[in-house]
């Protein structure tokens, strides 16, 4: 079975995942318990507000990529394509990666850090941002693990740039609608990327271990028959 993370990218992927999660946790520790945004949050909010004042409909349209229903549909499509192409690891990642991200974000980190916005709504890390970035990270992994050289690097770069633009658009809408501070969206993006990358590595490890164990059992059975 094809790996989710090419062998040559394992170390860099581990480093990237750890760095992303460390950034999210560090930000959470620094921002935990806050009831108002930082000076940086306020500066970014007013900059977005001035650009989109009176453009509520546009901001709502920009929020569409972060909607859970749409993300579930995209996940379903990824799973169907992965199954059709006989990529069970990718199908598992498409489900487990975003699910683990949402669980970690909403079930663990938000209550743990207890940062709020709008009179008590838990804000850090942003669940909308983490959900979007989790799905986009799965798409990036799908491209990197499917396309071979010499097109892998250029196509992966294109997908990463597109995913970044989509994330910025969604985050801008969340900030403009005052659903989140900008630091919440950064924390959400880091949480999602780190979590999905670790899940991908875990799936590869588990699948490889199972393959080795199966091969060992087959060799043992063959040796027994030979005797």
From TrEMBL:
Membrane-spanning segments: 12-31, 62-83, 90-109, 129-148, 155-179, 185-207
Keywords: Membrane, Transmembrane, Transmembrane helix
Recorded superkingdom: Bacteria
Signal sequence, start to end: none
InterPro entries from the UniProt entry: PAP2/HPO_sf (IPR036938)
Name used for this protein in its record: Membrane-associated phospholipid phosphatase
Organism (species): Kibdelosporangium banguiense
